[in-house]
Every structure is written in C-alpha cells, then in structure tokens.
Amino acid sequence: MPRIAYVNGSYVPHHEASVHIEDRGFQFADGIYEVVACINGKMTDERGHLDRLERSLDELGIPMPVTRRSLQFIIREMVRRNRLKNANVYIQVTRGVAKRDFPFPVEVPPSIVLTARNFQFDNNKNVEKGVTAMTVADIRWKRRDIKTTMLLAQVLAKQEAMDGGAYDAWMVDDEGFVTEASSSNAWIVTKDGKLVTRNATTSILRGVTRTAFEKICSGLQMKIEERAFTPAEAYEAQEAFNTSAVALVVPVIMLDGKKIGTGEPGPVAKKLYAEYRAYAEGQRGEHVEWVANLDEDEA
Predict the structure, then answer these.
(1) Tens of pLDDT along 254-294?
(2) How far, in Å, CA of 170 to CA of 135, rounded?
(3) pTM over 0.90
(4) Which pLDDT tens digit goes with each residue over 88-143?
(5) Residues with active-site annotation
C-alpha cells in the first residue's frame, strides 16, 4: 500500500517527501515533535498531545504553523489517506528554512511534516511478554521538558542498550537517579503496592500517556508517588514498566540483568494496560488536558 506524507501544505507520496537542506530542523535540530496514536480508528489523547505541542513551540518561540483545528483535520486525513485503522501519526514542526546562522531568522514561516505509520496495538509481544532494559548515563541537555527533535542522546542510549543485549535503556542522572527510558516514562511498583515515577521537572519529559495514567489511577484508588528512585530500588520492585503514546504500557521484566519481581509482566501493568485501552476507546470519560506542572525548584 502506498504511503502518504504531509509536507508544508501538500499531501505527497512518502518516497517523494522532502524538506529543504537549510531547514533549521536539519541544520540545528531546531524543532519539536509529537506522536498521536490512532487505536481502532479513534485518536487517543489527541488533546493532550496538541497541548504539549503548543507548549513546546512556545518555549522555543516557534509559532504554530496551522491552527489546532486545521492540524486535527490533517491528522485525520493522514490516517484516511494511508488507509489505516491503527497508527502512530508523527508531527514535526521546525523554525523553518533560512540561511544557516545561529540567531532566529526573521519572518520565516515554520515547517510542518506529518507521517503515519501502521502500528498493531493488539497482540504486541513487548506488552504481553515484557522487555529487558539496562541503565545508561543520561547525557541530554537541561530542558528535557521540551519535546524537541534533538534525540541524539536517546539514540545513543537505545543503541548502548541493544549492544548490551537489552531492549531499552533507563537513563540515570549524575546523582544516580533514574530519569526516564529512552523514549518513554519509567515506573516501578514498590512492595507495598505504590506506583513510583520521576517527578516532573526540566529533567524529564512529562508524558501525555503518563498524565492519562494519573487520571486512571485516581479512579482505581491506586497511589502514585512522583519522586526520584535509584536503579537499586528498581531491582527490588514488584514490577517495572514504561509508558508512552506508541506502545502504551510495556512491562520491564529485567533491569541490568536482574529479574524484576517474578520476571514476568505483573498484575499492575496488565491492569493499567487494560484500563488505558478502555480509556482510549472513550469508556473512562474525556481524555485529559496536558499541562507541564513542573516542580518549582527545577522549572
């Protein structure tokens, strides 16, 4: 089936899609991105992802290339034109095309590119069987709360994990605390049943899927502790998992060669995955609004 991309106002064959060599996204990683999941034909957490997209653009001083309503139409048109029922729609916005120079260019329109990729949310082996992970040093810049296209550190982290025989990387800061996984938020379940994930500061990207889980867990009366935790605490946890817009909930069954809990996906991860699927289908009320909610001391 031919794939279609959207580039600056035009729907074009994927293999012909291109941007200018002096686009600042290519030259400087001067841009942001978001991913919206379409599950069984329904957009999931679209509101939250567009909230975060607008906030990331504002933090970088890049204007919205189109209105939110227009972008919502383009997202749906991408799914329709690619004849997809289950997909991840990638949105990338850069500062635009200009002579290569560090200062912001004046009166240059931003560039916008969308692609849609088929993704099978059902019968996902990573979700059903769990994955292994290893810890690596977090070498990213200090504004990780902005979802930029500057992903080289994450690429290196993921590759280091794969070279070490693991599926994913959990990044660790200079103080020895887990920040997040290579492209998702990291969670553990303590022996007393509490869910722990890193508090939202400029040290991490506050996930839209994570925000949805805050609502879901509140409805289930499950306690979430937003705080830093160490790899050693993770080794002793009952469960561990990642959350993201792409794979939703992925159990981590082994970290640094140490079995987490029983070494199999646990009941909490399974429960939350089922609840999120119900949420995605509209069975748990409205989808959440996203706000940064950064801790004041690190905002």
Answers:
(1) 999 999 999 999 999 999 999 999 999 999 999 999 999 88
(2) 5
(3) yes
(4) 999 999 999 999 999 999 999 999 999 999 999 999 999 999 999 999 999 999 99
(5) 147
Tokens of 198: 């890193």
Give me the domains of the chain, ranges plus CATH numbers: 4-118 (3.30.470.10), 125-298 (3.20.10.10)
The pLDDT of residue 299 is 46
Distance between CA atoms of residues 203 and 146, nearest Å: 10
Reading phi first (left if > 0) and then psi (alpha if -120 to 50, else beta), residue 268 is in alpha
Question: CB of 24 within 8 A of CB of 98?
Answer: yes
- HEC-encoded secondary structure of the chain: CCCEEEECCEEEEHHHCCCCCCEHHHHHCCEEEEEEEEECCEEECHHHHHHHHHHHHHHHCCCCCCCHHHHHHHHHHHHHHCCCCCEEEEEEEECCECCCCCCCCCCCCCEEEEEEEECCCCCCHHHHHCEEEEEEECCCCCCCCCCECCCHHHHHHHHHHHHCCCCEEEEECCCCCEEEECCCEEEEECCCCCEEECCCCCCCCCCHHHHHHHHHHHHCCCCEEECCCCHHHHHCCCEEEEEECCCEEEEEEEECCEECCCCCCCHHHHHHHHHHHHHHCCECECCCCCCCCCCHHHC
Please state, in angstroms and rounded to a whole number, the distance separating the CA atoms of residues 62 and 160. 33
pLDDT mean over 142-169: 98
